[in-house]
């Protein structure tokens, strides 16, 4: 099978995995958000910050090196696997014994036991990282999709069952553990690779040269991406962190689904093409336009309907998350597009450059988050947006140096999606104004009888019994007005965005379909 066919097939499975995973996670997320309190989400977010730091060490960047390396040998894989076992075992012990210190840092005694239990995640990580990297390198996204979807379903069902049984914050803990253990078991069941003992210092050093920069970049990226949650949890408390986490979680779900799905396929493809910059440029422009066509309307659409979306999805208790969500959508846009930038830089073996970029961004994030705390959650969210967009020119300059990506051409492929999405949100705002003058009733009254004039009158009883089951007929049928409004906004937004694309650039849809047909035929 040609590389292009593998890319198309891999992208299809990756999209299935991404779509399925995000839908499942989102449904579970919605259900748990209605059952649990903001404090529960805040507690788990605190634990997740500590786990995320220790997880940096869990693979030491070897999984990335396995995907990127051209002359991969059996010894490289065996060395990476047993190194993972040693490192993850160490991290599990450190997490377990440092849990009390972390709980004291946040002044949350309940956090100690939660962290100790979650330290078991390192055990499953040790047995899954190399397996996943091999499958990704071989573009076997079908196996990865089956593993992920099954794990999410089982973990989600378990978490909801626990939440309904009154387990509170522990339902979130159980979800993480169940998904991780099930995913690892399925991965080993479907994968043919088994570890050997072909280990040597030379193989370790071959991987280490690339991995050390990835490892260092992951450390600095942690401080840049998690410092907002740390500062909010430490200075503003678990409840405020819960409000922030709900908004941030929704954005991260969409970012990983949209940008992550493209990146997972683009990275190994670009790694195979690292000696052919012309093909990388062509693929970058096409993939960026396709990604923007999807990303722009979704995130800007959320900005337009956030006031109706959040109460309907999560409940009125999460209204304080609305302004945070409206700000973070702009982080979602730039971070989704950044996935493409990162995939090119890393796939070309320039992990040192990626390290420098991530270090600068992380330091800027930490300082900006700390300063912005005086303005509360809104200030932190705005700081996130400002830093993200300030570094866009740096990213584009780097891509120009590496593979001669032209900034002017790049922005030209983005003009149409941005313009169409902008027209869409302004149209939604106008539709909102119009609907303010239209009163939709909250209920529909049920009549006492069905009357056909001059023919028959059929009375409607208050109670109906069928097969010994009694049904009480209500006086009125409630109408979910917010759902009606949201449905109108979404449908009108899709129509307006589609028409705007056609009017602004009539050839864009035809060109994209032609590109996909070309990939399929080859």
Instruction: Supply the helix-strand structural class.
Output: mainly alpha
Tell me the radius of gyration: 26 Å
Order of helices and strands: HHHHHHHHHHHHHHHHHEEEEEEHH
Shape: globular
Number of E-type strands: 6
Number of structural units classed as domains: 2
Q: Can you describe what's shown?
A:
With 522 residues, the chain is mostly helical. 79% of the residues lie in helices and 4% in strands. The protein is built from 19 helices and six strands. Helix 10 runs antiparallel to helix 11, helix 12 packs parallel to helix 17 and helix 14 packs antiparallel against helix 15 (376-390). It is globular. Mean pLDDT is 79; it is low at 518-522.
Helix and strand layout, with pairings?
Blueprint (H helix, E strand, L loop, with lengths): L2 H33 L2 H18 L6 H7 L5 H33 L4 H8 L2 H6 L2 H9 L3 H24 L5 H21 L10 H36 L1 H35 L4 H38 L7 H26 L3 H22 L3 H15 L1 H12 L3 H30 L6 E3 L3 E4 L3 E4 L3 E4 L2 E4 L3 E3 L2 H24 L3 H14 L1
Antiparallel strand pairs: 1-6, 2-3, 4-5
Helix pairs in contact: 1-8, 1-11, 2-4, 2-5, 2-10, 2-11, 3-7, 3-10, 4-5, 4-10, 8-9, 10-11, 10-14, 11-12, 11-13, 12-13, 12-17, 12-18, 13-15, 13-16, 14-15, 17-18
Top keywords for this entry?
522 residues; two-stranded antiparallel ribbon; mainly alpha; 6 strands; 2 domains
Entry summary:
The chain has 522 residues and is mostly helical. 79% of the residues lie in helices and 4% in strands. The N and C termini lie close together (10 Å).
